[in-house]
Amino acid sequence: MVGPLWFVGFDSLMQFVAFIIAVVIAYQAFKGYRITKQRTLLYLHFSFALLSAGLLIDSLAGFLGLLSRALRGTLVLTVVGYSIYFIAQALAYGILIFAYVSQARTLSATSPSLWVAPALGFATLQAAPIPAIKLLGRLVEYHPVAEIVLLFLVFYITVQTGLNYSATKDRNALLVFLGFLLLALSHLLFILMPFGALLFVIGHVLQLLGFASLLAMLLRVTTAK
Amino acid sequence: MMQKLPKYRSQMRIYVDIMRVIQREDNHAKPTRILYGANLSHDRLVKYLEELRTLGVIEEVVEDDRFYKLTQKGIEFMNQFRAIERFAAAFGFVI
Hints:
The complex is a heterodimer of chains A (225) and B (95). Chain A is mainly α and 225 residues long. Chain A is 80% helix and 0% strand.
């Protein structure tokens, strides 16, 4: 456990709520793909499906860890849970970035900046004190290097959704931008966690608010006439 | 930048464009209106209208003139498509 003691369990609960939201978004994306056969929607589906799987595993590992606190091996459980969650997030954001890059290529509007954030993310991973492969083997909960990689990936998506909002001025686009901005901020706070346990709590609250923003967008688009 | 449309329309996009023109014309559109509204050649219009009729989303009405209207299935499809379009657009994806 890396946060304050009074927060134990709440983080897993928040992850579980985020899991449900991610599942609903993945389902909507798949429904869209079934009707339109648009690959970008399939990528969006895979991205949120992976994210939801990671969130579920991490939250279940947290709950199980909580239930078996007296037993040895609790730490292993939460570390394994987080490691899977990290890989799922990295893949999910990677797929989403690929969707943006492939759409930009289709629309012939590729700019060099498209590759900057992912490249920086991988460069960070390579330049880390521990080589990337080893990192996955000994990943501890909310490892700063892992969170930096995720921050770069989410930051890229935030920029793309921000550009989309600035071009359309649409409220749904604003909610998506806000959602990813809050997710990026949550990763930033997880990096800064050594400076105060409260940052862990705020990070989780921001993460949940980010998913809530995405849910608000989904409710708006599905209920609008 | 994100709103730029692809160079070529997909078959789905053409179907939706045709159905949109029909809806815009109070669900009672002449072939000529569809031809101009959906920006299609005559041959392609005939082909797509036939395909849409086979799918059961539009029907041909012959009164004094020939018209096309959306069926209930077509109206429901358009409602679903609009929601998906809004969803994709919120992320910056063009359908």
